Amino acid sequence: MNLTKRLQTLAHKSGLKELPEQVRSRVERGLEQRIKLAITGLSRSGKTVFISTLAHHLLHADQGTSLPFFTPSAEGRILSVRDLSTEAETPFPLQSTLAGLQATPPHWPVSTEQLSEVRLAVKYRRPPGLGRALGEHSTLYIDLIDYPGEWLLDLPLLNLSFEQWCQQQQTLFADAPRVQVAEEFLELQRSIDWITPSSDEEQARLSRLFRDLLQQLREPPHSLSLMQPGRLLMPGDLDGSPLLYLFPMLVPLPENAEQAAPDSLYARLKDAFERYKDEVIRPFYENHFRHFDRQIVLVDCLKTLNQGEACFNDMQQALNGLLHSFQYGRNSLLRRLFRPRINRVLFAATKADHVTANQHHNLDRFLELMIQDARREMRFDGVSTSCMALASVRSTEAVQAKLDGQVLSCLRGYRKESDEEVALFPGEIPTELPRPEDWNDARFRFIDFAPRALPRTGLKPEHHIRLDQALEYLTGDLLK
Question: Domain 2-151+294-394+453-478 in CATH: superfamily?
Answer without folding.
Answer: P-loop containing nucleotide triphosphate hydrolases (3.40.50.300)
